[in-house]
């Protein structure tokens, strides 16, 4: 699958779980965890980077069993992270021949107490 984009079944790939109005905490850690199917085989990887939640699915999703994917952005084109004085931009490029226009924006709101 890594060598040939056509080997990826339809619906597989990167999903961003951020949605409009969603708030999240910026954790100063990187989280990586396996996703398994009913046969207990690895079917994907979950990733949390600074509070941004992504799923890399190696099997087509079943929305009935994965309600977190409803409204998720499939292969987004851009992620903006806005702070009061600066905006960081992550541009993503996909070689699958499809037009990817989903842009996601995360806006800094406040610093949370460490307690």
How many domains? The number is 1
Mean of residue pLDDT values: 84
**How many runs of DSSP E, i.e. beta strands?**
8
Shape: globular
Main sheet properties: 5 strands, antiparallel
Q: Into which percent range does the helicity of residues fall? A: under 10%
Low-confidence stretches: none
**How large a portion of the residues is in β-strands, by DSSP E?**
35-45%
Please give the order of strands in the largest beta sheet.
Answer: 2-3-4-1-5
Order of helices and strands: EEEEEEEE
Report how far the terminal alpha carbons are from each other. Answer: 44 Å
Rg, Å, rounded: 15 Å
Structure, described:
It is globular and about 45 Å long. A hairpin with a 2-residue loop joins strand 3 (42-49) and strand 4. The chain has 115 residues and is an all-beta fold. It has one domain (5-107). It has strands at 13-16, 30-36, 42-49, 52-57, 73-74, 78-82, 87-91, 103-107.
What is this structure, in a nutshell?
This protein is an all-beta fold. Helix content is 0%, strand content 37%.
Describe the structure using short key phrases:
single chain, 115 residues, mainly beta, 5-stranded antiparallel β-sheet, 3-stranded mixed β-sheet, 8 strands, 0% helix, 37% strand, globular
């Amino acid at each position: 699958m890594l060598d040939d984009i056509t080997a990826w079944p339809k619906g597989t790939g990167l999903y961003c779980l951020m949605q409009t109005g969603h708030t999240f905490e910026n954790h100063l850690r990187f989280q990586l965890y396996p996703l398994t199917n009913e046969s207990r085989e690895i079917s994907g990887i979950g990733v949390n980077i600074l509070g941004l939640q992504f799923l890399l699915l190696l099997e087509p999703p079943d929305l009935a069993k994965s309600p977190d994917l409803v409204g998720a952005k499939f292969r987004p084109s851009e992620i903006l992270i806005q702070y009061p004085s600066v905006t960081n931009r992550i541009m993503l490029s996909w070689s699958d021949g499809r037009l990817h226009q989903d842009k996601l924006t995360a806006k800094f709101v406040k610093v949370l107490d460490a307690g």
